[in-house]
């Protein structure tokens, strides 16, 4: 039986620590992107960064599943905090995800909803449970929460609060919900992990630039511990 795990990020910085950890891998170019394949403790991995946003991330997730045969998908990256319980460097795992910029409310539909879709996509509970075990073994705090996704870098208190109250969201980013839609449709269990880089407020771009690398590393190290656990 084949067993392949996909690990994706949106930006190079989000997967760099993983590639560095693997040391050697093969690079495959496909659909205007680079995919990295490696065998890690007997399990096949396919790794990629998608580029920023919902479209690129959906394309990459679908490619990892349909073209590369991934049977599980783990996303590692950074996010803006909505909840004031989340500080820079803190980890949040998505229990469910919504698209905050999907809006046909002019027809009376809720934000994030289109016919035959749903506002939220639920993440795989088995992998969340595994994550909690990893967190306690590492002595780390892992918060669970709702992640809202949209094609905007949010650097505005008003927009952030609107997303927080409309979707009961704890963090926001630009790829999670689109990856979730793809994995849900293709019946591939997925796990979306983010380490906070900023608070999606007026200082967000500065905070993001300062903490992208360290927070991305925080997330990547956790995801590799997850892979270790899935492997044995
Ligand atoms: C934003 C990255 C995108 O992949 C989503 C980071 C962290 N803070 C956020 C916020 N709003 C939305 N998303 C996020 N990721 C990249 S834009 C800067 C690109 O710089 C999560 C995220 N507040 C490239 C160099 O010019």
Summarize the structure.
The chain contains six helices and ten strands, in the order βαβββαβββαβαβαβα.
Topology:
Layout: E1 4-9, H1 12-22, E2 26-30, E3 33-40, E4 43-49, H2 54-66, E5 72-81, E6 91-99, E7 121-122, H3 125-138, E8 142-149, H4 157-167, E9 171-173, H5 176-185, E10 190-198, H6 204-231
Parallel strand pairs: 1-4, 1-5, 5-10, 6-8, 8-9
Antiparallel strand pairs: 2-3, 3-4, 5-9, 6-7, 6-10
Tell me what the structure shows.
With 232 residues, the chain is α/β, with parallel strands linked by helices. The protein has a single domain (4-231), classed as Rossmann fold. 38% of the residues lie in helices and 29% in strands. It is built from 6 helices and 10 strands. A 5-stranded mixed β-barrel has the order 5-9-8-6-10, surrounded by 6 helices. Strand 3 (33-40) and strand 4 form a beta hairpin. Helix 2 packs parallel to helix 5 and helix 3 crosses helix 6 (204-231). The longest helix is centred in the last third of the chain and has 28 residues, at 204-231. It is globular and about 50 Å long. It starts with a strand and ends with a helix. The relative contact order is 0.22. The mean pLDDT is 97. The protein binds ligand 3QA. Residues 10-11, 52, 78-80, 153-155, 172-175, 197-198, 200, 204, 208 line the site of ligand 3QA.
């Amino acid at each position: 039986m084949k067993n392949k795990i996909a690990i994706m990020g949106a930006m190079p910085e989000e997967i760099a620590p993983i590639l560095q950890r693997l040391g050697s891998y093969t690079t495959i170019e496909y659909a205007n992107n680079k995919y990295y394949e490696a065998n890690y403790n007997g399990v096949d991995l396919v790794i990629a960064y998608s580029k920023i946003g919902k479209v690129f991330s959906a394309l990459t997730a679908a490619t990892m599943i349909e073209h590369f045969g991934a049977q599980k998908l783990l996303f590692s990256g950074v996010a803006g905090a909505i909840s004031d319980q989340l500080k820079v460097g803190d980890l949040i795992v998505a229990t469910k995800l919504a698209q905050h910029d999907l809006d046909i409310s002019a027809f009376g539909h809720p934000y994030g909803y289109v016919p035959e879709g749903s506002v939220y996509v639920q993440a795989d509970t088995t992998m969340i449970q595994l994550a909690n075990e990893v967190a306690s073994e590492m002595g780390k705090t892992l918060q669970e929460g709702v992640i809202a996704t949209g094609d905007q870098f949010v650097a505005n208190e008003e927009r952030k609060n609107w997303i927080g109250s409309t979707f009961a969201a704890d963090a926001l980013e630009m790829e999670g919900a689109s990856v979730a839609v793809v994995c849900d449709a293709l019946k591939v269990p997925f796990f979306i992990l983010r380490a906070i880089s900023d608070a999606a407020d007026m200082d967000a771009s500065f905070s993001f630039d300062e903490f992208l690398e360290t927070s991305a590393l925080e997330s990547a190290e956790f995801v590799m511990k997850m892979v270790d656990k899935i492997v044995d």
